[in-house]
Structures are given as structure tokens and as C-alpha cells.
């Protein structure tokens, strides 16, 4: 999905100026309230799961998805950044996926309409390249090798992609004199 500051002009014409402080404050207040509600709902979901109250758990989980969807809608109205989220499920075409699972994922996590059928059993390397190409396209050509060579094989049944491209200004910018190029150290100690 794409949330882009370029939509602000159209939004202003349709809904009034985005520069309106009252409107911005109202949106931000909704975001704060929805975040609080989502936190409370998540805590309830975790408690119901721990207590194995499955009937109430499923209802609470449905509410969690609905509140998350509302929160994402409000966040998209705040015109300060561009974000591209590449969410998708890539499933082995011969493997059955529960339709309720696919519907839930599609509805609440913007996965492009379900599970993209792929042939991991006989063509996993070509499918890896296809997935990488899709992620690259979705992230403005910045994430080029989400799935490195050797990450898939003929036993792979499902790949979940969740890559994020973000472009925005920091509320407190970094001072150039305080930054430098350096190696990034991975948790295993390797440097990149």
C-alpha cells in the first residue's frame, strides 16, 4: 500500500486544507485513542488465549483486527511521510490454505488479495527471484535481495513478505557532523 504526501493537494480540495491545525489535531487525537484501544484489546486477546477461553478469544481477535485497520486508516491521513509496505503471502500452489485465514490476512494486513500461488516444489529459485522483484518494486527499488540465494528450497510452503520503504523527515534532524559511515555489526558478530 502507498501513503504519499503527493495526495495532499487532492485531499485538501476534497476535505479542506491539511494545514488546518484543528483537523490535524483531531486526527492525531484519534490516532492516540486508537493506539490506546489497540493496546487494551491486544492485552485482552493475550489474556483470553492464556486462559483458553477460545470463544471470547476469537471475538477479541476480530476486534483487534478491526481496530488495527481503523488505526492504519487514520495514520494514512497524516501527511508527513511516504511509506510503502510490501505485505504478501506466497504459497506453494499445491498446498491447501484455510480460506478463513486467507480472508483475515487479506482484509486486515493488505496482502494484495490473498496468497499468491507459486511453485516452490519444482521452481523455488525462479520464485525467489519473482518475490525479490516484487519487493523491490514495492519498496521503490531500495530492497533488492529480500530473500538471499539459498533461503528457499523445494520444501518451502509459505513465504511471508513484510518489507517497508519509509521516506520522511525526522522531527529532530541528525546533524551531519555527528554521522559517519561505519560497519553494521550483526547479532552473530559479523560485520556488513
UniProtKB/TrEMBL annotation:
Give residue ranges for domain Serpin: 60-191
Keyword Ribosomal protein set for record: no
Protein source organism: marine sediment metagenome
**Protein name (record):** Serpin domain-containing protein
* Short name of one Pfam family: Serpin
Instruction: Please provide the record's keywords in A-Z order.
Output: Coiled coil
* Coiled-coil positions: 24-51
GO MF annotations in UniProt: serine-type endopeptidase inhibitor activity
Its cellular-component GO annotations read: extracellular space
Region (Disordered): which ranges?
1-21
Question: InterPro entries, from UniProt?
Answer: Serpin_dom (IPR023796), Serpin_fam (IPR000215), Serpin_sf (IPR036186), Serpin_sf_1 (IPR042178)
Q: Does the keyword Coiled coil apply?
A: yes
